[in-house]
Design brief:
protein-arginine deiminase activity; Peptidyl-Arg-deiminase_porph; 349 residues; L-arginine/glycine Amidinotransferase, Chain A; Agmatine/peptidylarginine deiminase; 4-stranded mixed β-sheet; 19 strands; alpha/beta; globular
Amino acid sequence: MTERLRFPAEWEPQSAVLIAWPNADTDWAERLDQVEETYIALVAAITRFEDAVVVVADEDVEAYARARLSSARIDMGRVRFVEAPYDDTWLRDSGPITLRDGNGFRLLDFRFTGWGGKFDASQDDLLVERLHGMGIFSNSSRQAIDFALEGGAIDTDGAGTLLSTWRCLRERHPGADRPELSRRLAEWLRQDRVLWLEHGYLEGDDTDAHVDTLARFAAPDAIVFQACDDPADSHYAELEAMAAELAALRTRDGEPYRLFPLPWAKPILDGGRRLAASYANFLIVNGAVLMPAYGDEADARAQAVLAEAFPAREIVPVPCRPLIWQNGSLHCITMQLPAGLIETGAGKG
């Protein structure tokens, strides 16, 4: 690793969380009223701890979002609106992957292909370039990289170890072998170890097994992961195999990771289609962890596991059942911005 360029862990200090407001021109149109309630709850939770930067499609969407958030008594001094076009609201995958570059920042702008061409993503693929061109990021450069990579496909411990799933990266780049992909990721993201998971998937997930739905660093020596304790469930064998893989991984010091298995929610169906209700899709913010809640009895147990994994942080449930209708959850719709990347404070909104 170089000392100058570094990929910070999510638990490091942040200036804000970046999201995009759902509207009738996104895939949320059919159930817009339900998903808006989740976004309101999300912004309310974020602004308890830091700023929220809300991308809106136009002035009308901004006016509407501002009114909904204001009526929920959210601190609007911590909300900043930015107008830019987007196809959808999965900013974990279309937003910037930010490296610290000395006293500034480097925004890595990978190709976003709509998860391997499954959906149109022409506007989303331009989002980082447009936001950077608007000057909302402080002391930053942008590096365009002609390589398909989504933020949800990777997780870092902030100290040079990257965690990813072979299923996803192989699907995006079938012509590349593992040593090549490890080398390229390590070079771009300034990592010196890439740990690959062979197992793990969720029905209803169209990302080809993003790691942020399966296993996440909680500290350089700790991993929180989605477990399944129901032998009759179709996920049981695959998630048990993933748990065994995680147990076999070693830290940089050669020690086993401290592992925190998350409980398994009962199946949530939509017209017979299984939805991907993962508790691993949490978001770390300053002083807290925002946890996806699904209205299941496992919610309380998931909150307890996260409290054990993050003992210095408040665990804040956010109702996310509407999100999984479109195959993602809380982490998928957000992108944290490291401290110093944007101007913060009251009076911007």
